[in-house]
């Protein structure tokens, strides 16, 4: 190893240690915010008790970093089954003999101590699992993904507010409500991003017809016009399965909204407040997003259209890591990391816009796309089939760009998230697109 390589490896180790520390700081904040009774309780059948998420975070870290990368003995050989998401559905997790809060905290601490030692000694090259610290990056992302899941559990929890954050930055002037994305090829996915997960790989060419895409997500004010126009009561706007779900679930507004006389209020982490008209709508399911789009004379973008709008640079023809370029996200670019516990108003973050002028693609709200979860051409499951492969072709729709609850380490221009089209507890909204005539 040359001295330049050694300096780079040391820098990578510091980066990993910092990312692990930031993830744990967030997990600790989310679990220390409530008492033990609250930690073991199930706040919704859609979610695990918070204490399950915490120990599951530690267990995944033990499996991959202590045992596999480190080649060390198990910390706890007896609990793998309890924290295997495929063994027990979320609804059943409260009745399992889980580690109690003190045990779970002690467990994740013990695992982390060993992992920091493994990190010091690992060469961060050689086999694919450790090359450029991939396994460490995967575990950082895993913890951050569960931190967003725990934040969704907090949103479902009843009671007085326990989480607090600064308000997000204001909107900036917006030159246009939609932009034309020219037709032609672009590179989707990645073969270069070191911590990209298996479903984002490999890079491949996609040729798209031209389309228009909104420069900002659909706002609460926009969505309210759909409600006021009777959109929830008109099957013309809904797909067949969407209408069936709308009827069965009696949908009439986004989740957490309530009518209060002649205005709408929403509950946000225990605070009841008037629905802010200029914020992106959040807590809508795919079916509601698709119905709104049809009512508006538009449609949802496909996943490829979302990614081209987010990454394609017309000047160079290259695909960027993020809309603003290749730099890692900073607070000027996007509303990420639970810094603000709400989306920023539409038109915020001008420094984060794409070359074509599309804003808020990263952060604020996950954006529903009209695509199923399919592997890219040349996909290979890595390092385990249960991250992506077992979900391909299931009843899922794609979500892109991350939300205010997503950490910068757990989202990028190529990142792919998915959920059932009826789910509303996630921090999901959408933006619209429409076909353009070919020139
Ligand atoms: C990619 C967000 C759908 O939370 O179910 C966490 C991520 N995978 N633990 C999920 C995940 C295993 C996953 N999503
Ligand atoms: Fe997990």
UniProtKB/TrEMBL annotation:
Keyword flag Oxidoreductase: yes
Residues reported in the UniProt entry to bind gamma-L-glutamyl-L-cysteine: 90-93, 419, 423
Recorded metabolic or biological pathway in which this protein acts: Amino-acid biosynthesis; ergothioneine biosynthesis
Positions bound to Fe cation: 56, 142, 146
Region (Disordered): 315-338
Catalytic activity: gamma-L-glutamyl-L-cysteine + hercynine + O2 = gamma-L-glutamyl-hercynylcysteine S-oxide + H2O
UniProt-listed InterPro entries: CTDL_fold, DinB-like, DinB/YfiT-like, EgtB, EgtB_Actinobacteria, Sulfatase_Mod_Factor_Kinase, SUMF_dom, SUMF_sf
Reported cofactor(s): Fe(2+)
Enzyme class per UniProt: oxidoreductase
Molecular function GO terms recorded: gamma-glutamyl hercynylcysteine sulfoxide synthase activity; iron ion binding
A Pfam family hit: FGE-sulfatase
UniProt KW keywords: Iron, Metal-binding, Monooxygenase, Oxidoreductase
Annotated DinB-like domain residues: 20-150
Chain ranges of the Sulfatase-modifying factor enzyme-like domain: 177-434
EC number(s) on file: 1.14.99.50
Keyword Cytoplasm applies: no
Family statement drawn from the similarity comment of this UniProt entry: Belongs to the EgtB family.
Function statement: Catalyzes the oxidative sulfurization of hercynine (N-alpha,N-alpha,N-alpha-trimethyl-L-histidine) into hercynyl-gamma-L-glutamyl-L-cysteine sulfoxide, a step in the biosynthesis pathway of ergothioneine.
Descriptive protein name: Hercynine oxygenase
